C-alpha cells in the first residue's frame, strides 16, 4: 500500500511541473487559442510586390525535450484591399497553393499531404511538411477571412507526429468576432426629430 501511495505521489508531483494549458487571446488578431505555455509576439515586415506587409506572429517554443511539439505558432497578415478576399474562391485557392509552396520551400522540405478545409465557413488548406531529412514535421492550417490571412502551425519530431497536443491546439482556435462584425456598418443612422 505504501509503495502504491509513494508511486502515486511521485507521478502526481512530476505531472504538476508540466506546463498547464492556458487561453491566449489576441484582440488585434481577432482570435483565441489554448496553448501549453506563454506566447511571444513578434511583427515581421516583409517587402512584396504589393508593398510592405506586416506579419503578426505569436509563437511558443517548448524547451522540454519530451514535449509533444517543439513549437506552436499563429500568424496573420492583412493584405491590401482588392488583392485577396475570401469571397474570391479561385484567387484564394491560388493564394493558398502558393502559400503551401513557399512554406515547404522555406524549410527545404517536402509536402506529405494537402487538403481543402473551411474554418468558420472561410476557405483554407491543411498540410503537412516533412523537413530536416524527414526528422521534423510541420502541420499547418491556413485560411483567408476577408483580406486577412491566418496560419496556424505546430512543429514536432517525426516520432511525435501523432500527438494529441497538435489537435488540441488546432481545435481550440476560434475567432473572437465574425467577419461581418469587423466591417463597420454602411447603414446610415437616422437623426431623431
Produce the secondary structure layout:
Blueprint: H1 2-16, E1 22-26, E2 31-35, E3 40-48, E4 51-61, E5 71-78, H2 89-106, E6 110-119, E7 122-131, E8 136-145, E9 148-157, H3 164-172, E10 174-175, H4 179-182
Task: Report on this structure.
- The chain has 193 residues and is α+β, with helices and mostly antiparallel strands.
- It has one domain (20-177): Mog1/PsbP, alpha/beta/alpha sandwich (Protein Transport Mog1p, Chain A, 3-Layer(aba) Sandwich).
- The chain contains 4 helices and 10 strands, in the order H-E-E-E-E-E-H-E-E-E-E-H-E-H.
- The strands form 2 sheets. It has a 7-stranded antiparallel beta sheet, sandwiched between helices.
- Strand 7 (122-131) and strand 8 (136-145) form a beta hairpin.
- The chain starts with a helix and ends in an 11-residue tail after the last helix.
- Mean pLDDT is 84; it is low at 1-17 and 180-193.
Order of helices and strands: HEEEEEHEEEEHEH
| Tally of individual helices | 4
Q: Indicate the overall shape.
A: globular
Spatial ordering of strands, largest sheet = 3-4-5-9-8-7-6
Tell me the distance between the termini. Answer: 82 Å
Q: Give the proportion of residues in helices.
A: 10-25%
| CATH-assigned homologous superfamily | Mog1/PsbP, alpha/beta/alpha sandwich
Which second-level CATH architecture applies?
Answer: 3-Layer(aba) Sandwich
Pairing-aware structural class of the strands and helices?
A: alpha+beta
Low-confidence stretches: 1-17, 180-193
CATH class: Alpha Beta
Number of strands: 10
- Averaged pLDDT, please? 84
